[in-house]
Amino acid sequence: MNILLDVLPIVMLGAFLGMDVVTFPQAMISRPIVAATAAGAFIGNAPAGLMMGALLELLALEMLPFGASRYPEWGSASVVGGALYASAWGDPAGALVASLLAALLTAMISGWSMVRLRRLNARRASMLKRELDAGSVDAVTGLQLFGLTADFVRGAIVTFGAMLVFKPLTPAIISAWTFDTRDSRAVVVAIVAAVAASAIWKIFHSVPKARIVFVSGLVIGAVLVVTR
Amino acid sequence: MTTGLGANPAGATSLPRGIWLRMYMRLFAVQGSWNYESLIGNGIAFCMEPALRLLPGGIGGEKYSEALGRHARYFNAHPYLAGVAVGALARAELDGVPPALIERFRTALGGPLGSVGDRLVWASWLPLCSLIALSAFGFGAPPILVTAIFLVSYNLGHFWLRAWGLQVGFRKGLRVADALGNPVLRQGPQIVGTAAALVAGVAIPLASSRLIGGGRSFAAGIIVLAMFGGVLFARFGGRIEGWRLSLAILALFVFFSVIR
User: Fold this and answer.
1) Which of A37, A143, A151 is nearest residue B147 as measured by Cβ atoms?
2) ipTM above 0.90, yes or no
3) Residue A219: its chain B contacts at CB < 8 A?
4) Which residue of A38, B133, B201, B240 pairs with A218 in a disulfide if CB–CB is 3.0 to 4.6 A?
């Protein structure tokens, strides 16, 4: 009962932000940089949530949510990652890696759950086909409300399940962690930055001169890093 | 187009404010029942429904039911540009355009609205706003500012695009294809894409540096390594998705760190 009450606000946040990815309102409050920060703020540690959000945002650059394509669901996953990392007060070594791993696993499972939801919606639409074809407003509105509600429930289940598993697992990983904080962070950031750079390289390949512009930006960025 | 046969004999080019607002609000849930059979078809009908009440006979009338049934079928479009279809199709129904013509128009409309929206929003505007927020993060902005920068900049475009789509769709009706030649839609992806590429170059090293913390030279070394890895991954990574690769490497890292 305790853990249920403990994670309830996070589950509600995960459910709502999970919906934002596709069904409502798609205002991109589900983007990691917002969702993980919000989760961190719920825990009382928004800066930690932002750190997790920035990491996941760099990874999320690669996945464009094109219509029927399959992609990880970042909304609920970012809430889980942000909440876990924000809960590890004092930023112990391994906390960032363990929380990021939990977020990525959640994103994978949540992406799968979105596919199941789309199939469920299709089944529901087939059941209502006669009414829909006849132009029943109840059927049209009902199907829409069913999809919205089911997506909310989906996000809640994913977030709750992830918190149930990773809330105790993350501290266990942290307590057994053997690398120091700096090296652990360096590994994580190197992977994430490489994926982000690769994503930009691929996304804008069709834009004329985009790669030259990107490399120019990198030079400016590198100068800023060294001189700031 | 005005035929004089429908609910819009005077050829009004805008909807009553209350109905427009209801349709606009519904557009935010246009993908509420997204599925692999009808995609956003039901959502289109759901969004159009307030306008269809203006048809002769009102709610439950023959024309209303026929139109609603017609639009609850398969349809595909980018969700932010779905308003163009909703507006144009609502206008066609109110103008009394023959159903066969509406069906053909509907079929022709979906593809362009999907591809234009994908290029403009998902592949340009979203990455640009995300990278601007990451730059702010890299410059040391606090959480509230980073999230505000992202949400405000992104949603200015988002809210405007949905409103513009509904407005122009209803105004142009069956001639809405002209609107897709709007410079924002045609040249926007290229301009925004170029800007995003520049911002990406600045944002990735800055954000990485803040994430790593510690000494500048250490951070710079990691960033150079990451950029080199990124180019290699882009060229030789094939169809492997970066986040999956990250997941695999992180899982191995955790396993190694815990058991060693």
Assistant:
1) A37
2) yes
3) 201
4) B201
